[in-house]
Amino acid sequence: MGKLDGKAALVTGAGRGIGRAIALKLSAEGARVVVNDLDEEPARETVAEIAARGGEAVACVGSVTAAGFAERFVKTALEAFGGIDIVVNNAGYTWDNVIQKMSDEQWQAMLDVHLTAPFRILRAASGFIREAARKEAQEGREVFRKVVNISSVAGLGGNPGQANYSAAKAGVTGLTRTLCKEWGRYKVNVNSVAFGLIRTRLTQPLSAGEAKIRVEGREIGVGVQPAVLQAMEQQMIPLGRAGTPEEAANAVYLFCSPESDYISGQTVVCGGGLTL
Ligand SMILES: NC(=O)c1ccc[n+]([C@@H]2O[C@H](COP(=O)([O-])OP(=O)(O)OC[C@H]3O[C@@H](n4cnc5c(N)ncnc54)[C@H](O)[C@@H]3O)[C@@H](O)[C@H]2O)c1
């Protein structure tokens, strides 16, 4: 028996890194998962991994920023699993530069993926959620649904080179707090997890030159200088190391579990004690 038996969960950016670990964790606790990723192969790999472990998942491939994506994502969940219980807005990447070198395109891309996409997905899910909650209230039942929006310590404290990313991730906090107030009446817990340093391809050590990822036709530099990683782990993170995707997923799971039924509108930092 898992704590999420029978629940339907939607996770964006679940083909790699933290999102993949979230999908696997929610599935391990009994949830059926709609796995989104921009890239088809990693999305299908996560679905296959869930199936190999005895869980149930379907893929919904595509960019969360694409027109009509949110409606398609919600439709996939309703058709495959007949409902929506958990939404995790995780998809994203970084596209850094100091402000004098940051283009409008670079600024807008971060707002689109980190802030506008979650807004659209939650708006698309609102019809089902409101209707289901009204019915449950008429039956005298309280059924809690969960939204977890992924933020970053950069969104709470700022980070040089990340005006675009920090602004978008700070916006996630505002979206979270407002939806907590709008959706409390529908028994939806809306919370946010702000990660510190988690080991994924975004934070890979730059050993030889720059690491690149391909996102929506663009080649984007990611990664962190080894000296910076070392300084963070030794001097800034009390627990002394970066987190794993699995540890990050566990923090998200807390806000998906029944134990968080009376917690809403909060942002928890999952960063090994990293302060801002
Ligand atoms: N790694 C960290 O230290 C860290 C710290 C703070 C916040 N975060 C946040 O955690 C989330 C996950 O990042 P990660 O470190 O696991 O990165 P990752 O690159 O390992 O995984 C992110 C996944 O999201 C997908 N994705 C990117 N853009 C997308 C789009 N437009 N539509 C659909 N899918 C898309 C990618 O294809 C990738 O599979 C992001 O929102 C990121 O900003 C990460």
The rounded Rg comes to: 18 Å
* Count of DSSP H/I helices: 8
Bound molecules: nicotinamide-adenine-dinucleotide
Any idea what the shape is?
globular
Characterize the main sheet.
7 strands, parallel
Category from helices, strands and their pairing:
alpha/beta
How far is it from the N-terminal to the C-terminal residue, by CA? 39 Å
Helical content stands at: 40-55%
Fraction of residues in β-strands: 15-25%
- Largest sheet: spatial strand order: 3-2-1-4-5-6-9
The average pLDDT value, as a whole number, equals 97
Spans of at least 5 consecutive residues whose pLDDT stays below 50 are none
Query: What is the ordering of alpha helices and beta strands?
Result: EHEHEHEHEHHEEEHHE
Question: How many individual β-strands?
Answer: 9
Folded structure, characterized:
The chain has 276 residues and is of the alpha/beta class. It is built from eight helices and nine strands. The protein has helices at 17-28, 40-52, 69-81, 104-138, 153-157, 163-183, 226-236, 245-254; strands spanning 8-11, 32-37, 57-61, 86-89, 145-152, 188-195, 211-215, 218-222, 267-270. The strands form two sheets. The protein has a seven-stranded parallel sheet, sandwiched between helices. Helix 2 links the parallel strand 2 and strand 3 (57-61). Helix 1 (17-28) runs parallel beside helix 2, helix 3 (69-81) packs parallel to helix 4 (104-138) and helix 4 (104-138) runs parallel beside helix 6. Bound molecules: nicotinamide-adenine-dinucleotide.
